[in-house]
Amino acid sequence: MRRVLAIILVCTLIAGVGVGCKAKAGVVNLGGIFPMTGASATFGTSSKNGVDMAVEEFNAAGGATIGGVKTTVNYINEDDTGLPEVGASAAQMLINQDKVIGIIGAVMSKVSLAIGPIAQAAGVPEISPTSTNTKVTLVGDYIFRACFIDPFQGTVMANYAYNTLKVTTAAVLYDNGNDYNKGLAENFKASFEKLGGKVVAYEAFTDEAKTVDYKAQLTVIKAANPAFLYLPNYYGSVALQLKQAREMGLNVPAGGGDGWDSPDLVKIGGAAVEGGVFSTHFSKDDPAPKVQTFVKAYTAKYNEPPDSMGALAYDAAGLLLDAFKTCGSIKGSDIRDAMKNTTFSGISGAYKFDENRDPIKAAVIIKIVNGQQSFLTTVNP
Ligand code: PHE
């Protein structure tokens, strides 16, 4: 009873100075925007799992103290269905109707690029767990990310192909309608050529969520006789591309980026994705005690081990909530400043932002062996 009274008083005081009572007494809203349905739905499920866990832990540990009042967080999760325009309306709703203190999201770079300007204009801090396209955080100073950027992961796989697999020719097949795929294709090509490799075919299609037939592009690629196939796309289309490539007798080693990181890659692709290698953010097989404690807790809660998105969404939410607690304010600019100066230590590494609010972080390389993700190595920047 005493707690409720104190909370009502604080709301009145805030209203008295004209700021308005932004949230329900003792509870503030936090928003999340993820693809819960559509072609990349495992991305949304894992991300929501990670945020839910971080919010539960934050609340169980007592939440934040705002104006002397213990304040917990209510998490509101929105589905962007993988489409920028749906993500944009979700952002409007979270900001204008739910008055969120911050937004976690999105996963896909093209969706993050659509919600960024809305969050920036409203002065609401946003952190994308896993959007890797360079442009995402350049939208403005309220926009952060919890992951490395594509020029880094493109280089990581170019190095791996050229120096470890010892291939000197490669083909690239990518979606030219998504900033992520297009950017990562360019980054891989530039790095591979800088090393002395040759990109013998560079083929595009538009909209992987709608495309099912890649045979025309694969025919061109096969004719160019590459020693390596780079597919910087999301898991659903990668699985189809590799199935069709293998059916056509294109059996060279294949690789890609974090878009491959889904349990459904193997479920859809089966034997066609076997031996594939990709760069990503996190491996559940990392022996660090902190990672293993997280993997145990996550697996116990959700009946499956965390993938990159589960881990990075957990880190992104943890980082924003830690900043909220540190500044003790619901004002967007205060939370943003605390985020900028964070030294938050996450599951996927210690966070320190550069001038573009991008953290400097290592990548891991994973190989599909016997239908399982197998951890190969960690690559530091
Ligand atoms: N990096 C991808 C993008 O920017 C999203 C992604 C992250 C996909 C992690 C898979 C795993 O669109």
TrEMBL record:
Identify the keywords attached in UniProt to this record, alphabetized: Signal
Under Pfam families, the record lists: Peripla_BP_6 (PF13458)
Leucine-binding protein domain boundaries: 28-369
Q: Carries keyword Signal? A: yes
The answer, when asked if Signal is one of the entry's keywords, is yes
Enumerate the InterPro entries for this protein: BCAA_transport, Leu-bd, Peripla_BP_I
Q: Which PROSITE patterns match?
A: PROKAR_LIPOPROTEIN
Q: Which PANTHER family match?
A: LEUCINE-SPECIFIC-BINDING PROTEIN (PTHR30483), PERIPLASMIC BINDING PROTEIN OF ABC TRANSPORTER FOR NATURAL AMINO ACIDS (PTHR30483:SF6)
The family classification in the record reads: Belongs to the leucine-binding protein family.
Protein name as annotated: Ethanolamine utilization protein EutJ
Q: Name the source organism.
A: Candidatus Cryosericum hinesii
